[in-house]
Amino acid sequence: MNPYTLLPFIVLIAAMFLMTRSAKKKQTQAAQMRNEMQPGSGVRTIGGMYATVKEVNEDTVLLDAAPGVDLLFAKNSIGAVLTDDEYNRIVHGIEHDLKSDAEIVPDDASSLTETDETDGSAAAAAASDDKIDLGKKDADEDTADGSEAVTEDKPKKSDGDSDAK
């Protein structure tokens, strides 16, 4: 048997092995994450709900979604265990003060460009008052030049009218 005929089968088996290996690695990481859950930690379910872990059992987790609202979920339905900072940022909108010494970026760019009011503002005001000629003439200027606008005697059509008979 020619070794070139077996090459596609060998490549296919190797690709299947690599895909199952990465999937198995992801499953073990997810199981490890679910086993590390402790009461008081914030979680996100696979449905996108954020809650706090109240109690952890062998196969289930009791979650506190809101004051007085306790929900029982299977451990497999927990999508992610969040850090305290991430949970507070998402659920309560509390930002951790990581950038206390960083510069504040303004909302508009006017404060970033410093202009001198004595000489720059007068030139800018004069430039904004001038009209810019874009090559188009107004309708009043057309009639003043002697070229009359052609008017048709036919009535104008509305949206639903057509020439078809």
UniProtKB/TrEMBL annotation:
- Span-the-membrane segments of this chain are 6-23
Q: Name one GO cellular component term.
A: plasma membrane
Domain of life, per the record?
Bacteria
The UniProt keyword set, sorted, is: Cell membrane, Membrane, Protein transport, Translocation, Transmembrane, Transmembrane helix, Transport
Which parts of this chain are annotated as the region Disordered? 105-165
A Pfam family per the record: YajC
Where in or outside the cell it occurs: the entry states: Cell membrane
Q: How does it sit in the membrane?
A: Single-pass membrane protein
Q: Which GO terms describe its biological process?
A: protein transport
Metal-binding is among the record's keywords? no
Q: Provide ranges: composition bias, Basic and acidic residues.
A: 128-139, 151-165
NCBIfam families reported in the protein's UniProt record: yajC
* UniProt family annotation: Belongs to the YajC family.
Q: Which PANTHER family match?
A: SEC TRANSLOCON ACCESSORY COMPLEX SUBUNIT YAJC
Q: Provide the protein name.
A: Preprotein translocase subunit YajC
Q: Source species, please?
A: Streptomyces griseofuscus
